[in-house]
Design a protein that fits this description.
- The protein has 149 residues and is an all-alpha fold.
- It has one domain.
- The protein is 43% helix and 3% strand.
- It contains six helices and two strands, in the order H-H-E-H-H-H-E-H.
- Strands 1-2 form a two-stranded antiparallel sheet.
- The longest helix has 17 residues.
- The protein starts with 13 loop residues before the first helix and ends with a helix.
- The structure holds iron/sulfur cluster.
- Iron/sulfur cluster binds next to loops.
Length: 149
């Protein structure tokens, strides 16, 4: 008797859950005033690089693709490769969770973890479902995601 071909399990849909998490974050009543100074996008100056789970990376990669690019180019100043020449985020709608919560001091400071811990847990759970390996630095995470979409 022939075995029926094994069906691959369907890939979980990251987009719906990521958009739900970002929408929930928007509803949190934490006063912040981002004036797009982009200080947080200059990793060397800010002293940190956003870390992305797999779902965030795939969602950011879709933003990159939508802007017509197929790969990331290093920024000449060592800033985020998604920071445009005119000093604006080129994937603002698709920017990762860290870019939505790590506000500079002038904008009100970083979100306290206790206010977003449940959302971080959802991102981690999605990462696991997508076969991710936990949070990874933005450039590597988005580059790998671009190769997969
Ligand atoms: S993804 Fe956009 S908001 Fe986030 S660090 Fe890069 S340029 Fe800045």
């Amino acid at each position: 008797m022939l075995n029926a071909p094994r069906m691959k399990p369907p890939k979980p849909d990251h987009r719906q859950e990521i958009e739900a998490i970002y929408a929930e974050l928007e509803r949190r009543p934490l006063p912040r005033q981002c004036e797009m100074r982009t200080g947080c996008c200059h990793f060397r100056l800010a002293g940190h690089t956003p870390m992305l789970t797999r779902g965030e990376a795939l969602y950011a990669a879709q933003g990159v693709r939508a802007s017509g690019r197929k790969a990331l180019k290093p920024h000449p100043d060592g800033a985020c490769p998604l920071l445009g020449r005119e000093g604006r985020c080129t994937i603002y709608k698709n920017r990762p969770f860290g870019c939505r919560t790590h506000f500079c001091a002038e904008a009100g400071g970083m979100y306290p973890r206790k206010h977003v811990a449940d959302l971080i847990q959802r991102l981690e759970a999605l990462d696991e479902r997508l076969g991710g390996s936990g949070s990874r630095p933005l450039e590597a995470a988005v580059s790998d995601a671009l190769a997969d979409i």
